[in-house]
């Protein structure tokens, strides 16, 4: 699994999904300039220390600090080869991330997010400058076209609504277009300077296909990852950041949005999605954890060589076998409701009666007549794809035989129901990927590795001034 920081895939109109534009009511705090200003303070007595071998500077044990010393709270601006990144630029980009969170974000988490966003903006600026120097800058009409696709996807083509929403969360269309410009510019750079020089032989592709056929029936996993690099010096800080991100995700934060802004792997541009992988393709530390995970589960932070990872298991299937979540199910929903003012005891008695009735049902043909006797309602649907069902119910239904039903679920407010499996059409076994698909996948991995080196070189050669 590669972790190139600069790799990317073709720019997609899925830069921001509906989740990213869900209103959350989070009020953004605009961080002002935090210069070294000495405010009047009451001077406290300091112990005078004499320089010694252990304390060569003669530093007192109780010192009085002037101004703010938190490195995360310094002025969040930078000048990148003459291009100014302002605090407003950072505020507006942070707003795009926080708008996707379903839970309030603590102030210290916002500070960490600002630091990461600043780094992203610096890389974005370097990409745009490189494309301009190579005379392959992102065309304005392409940027506008992608922006309008997002407008159509999220606001029915009403640009005024998009602008109003972005303004309401503390961002702007200019900030979003700048991000689009950076991704288009980088795609142009890779297409001209790297992709033409990457070669994959037919022997490599055939060997890959051979290994896949040998692995038929083994498990493979669709994994999302947020990867943070760490060194011996900053390990504790990076671990704290990863733990804070994990906490936000567990409280409902968007994994895709956090991966795009925080992850330092090449998969960040697609929301951390690594695609379908086998355990042997993952670092051993991640593979061992992934093996024990259930679909939809988060794990982390996991320490791996070079940093920490947060893993999200999107889906699971078997190599070259049918994906069970693609099965079409024929279901009957049997439900009961409760009148207003029902007591807990009455509700429990009604649920017990309902449960006893379902135990007597011998198949889908018996449901309708029997349900009418106990005042239950029956709704049928014979074209439900398993993948569209809630995960917990999906896992139960896929393990049922025709004529069996799920345990009762629900509550007094929404009613109690069961789902009965009346039929199932399994998809055909998945065939091996085509020769062209495998070749494209290997090429992309190599392009991403070279992209990592190119972006590292751009950083090393850049003149960046922090204020």
From TrEMBL:
UniProt xrefs under Gene3D superfamilies: 3.10.50.40, Porin chaperone SurA, peptide-binding domain (1.10.4030.10)
Q: Which GO terms describe its molecular function?
A: peptidyl-prolyl cis-trans isomerase activity
- Keyword entries, A-Z: Chaperone, Isomerase, Membrane, Periplasm, Rotamase, Signal, Transmembrane, Transmembrane helix
Is Membrane one of the keywords?
yes
Looking at the UniProt entry, the stretches that span the membrane are: 20-43
What are the PpiC domain coordinates in residue numbering?
218-315
Q: Which PANTHER family does the record match to this protein?
A: CHAPERONE SURA
The protein's name: Parvulin-like PPIase
Q: Which organism is it from?
A: Erythrobacter neustonensis
